[in-house]
Structures
1.
Amino acid sequence: MYYENYHLGINIIWWALWVILLIWILGFPYNTSRRHKRYTASDILQKRYFSGDITIYEYYDKQKNLNEEGELKKT
């Protein structure tokens, strides 16, 4: 009796779900800037100092070398 349009209703729901999923995937581009961040020499030097790989004297010495070589921008 009421089963004639049953498949049509389910079909519309599935199509709506696929359309919403497709809009969601294409509408929100994947953020790749976080994954491919390039670290500068200063960032790496600072990370090594904070992790305890180098001492404060080595840090300042290497920082001075980077400034002399023009690796760091003067702000």
Note: Residues 2 and 31 are 48 Å apart (CA to CA).
2.
Amino acid sequence: MLINLIPKKIEAFICHLKSDKGITAIEYAIIGVAMSSALYYIFNDGNFLETLRQAWSTMGNKITNSGNIL
């Protein structure tokens, strides 16, 4: 009885090794790290928010200075 169980367990183990679900998880983890690194750079070190504030300020000033053209 035990002898019949061993080949089935070996086959299940080999099938588990051939499964690529773990590879997909690793790929998603690498993509997640890359995206989080890019977002960190954009919002912290890349001065994205300061540039955005300056653009809104410039646009607001130009609208205010344009007068009542409507």
Note: Helices lie at 2-18, 21-45, 48-65.
